[in-house]
User: What shape does this take?
Amino acid sequence: MTTVIDKVPFRVAPMLATLVDKPFTRPNWIFEEKYDGVRMVAYKEGAKVTLISRNAIDRTARYPEIAAEIKKLKAKTLVLDGEVVVFDKKKVSRFALLQQSKGQPVYAVFDCLYADGKDLRREALSERRKELERVVKPSKAIILSAQLSSDGEKAFQIAARKGMEGIVAKNLASRYVERRSGDWLKVKVHQEAEFVIGGYTEPGGTRSYFGALLLGVYLDGKLHYVGKVGTGFDEKTLSELHKKFQKLPAGTQFEI
Assistant: This one.
């Protein structure tokens, strides 16, 4: 049974990093691997562990091995911030592997907001990292986030060479805030763009549901066709997207 002393007195919305165009180096900043997974805040309250996603959904049942490993940690109360990921053979996190349940989910932890009754959110990141390293012992389902280098340009080069999504730069003096912050900055190795899904083609050969997505972008207020994409979808994803398409009237836009 969870007692009052074993309760965490708050729930948090994750601190978010601001996207910047290029890597940099600054004194008193660290540069970590940017993981390609699902953001998750973990609460340990005595024997009870709860995993809450960025959009405030309880995902404890989805990742029982991670919850079980957090339960083993000695601290009676904890709030940990991190990313649930699945690594490929080269030890690079891949969201597609996590989405398709291909591989062992691992909790890559990068922050500690509460430990044994102490609220750490107003402490500097450097102190929170020390506490994180004290309370979390890496195991098969929990790791500490990888700090690539104290040099931002070098960290970015490492991320690019290994095929990582990018890097996250963090001010070691920063407090934890529940919003997007300039004290956490992210640089992506592969730049992204947003497209409108205008329709899809009929499936061909042995393909089911649909062939390719027809994409467009808005330029000067007008929608322009820019091409199509049909690779990278497994049978499950094809089915799920096709079901969504059937419910959407012409002119509706959505993200996948």
Helices lie at 64-71, 95-99, 125-135, 152-162, 235-247. Residues 17 and 184 are 5 Å apart (CA to CA). The chain is about 20% helix and 35% strand. The longest strand covers residues 106-115.
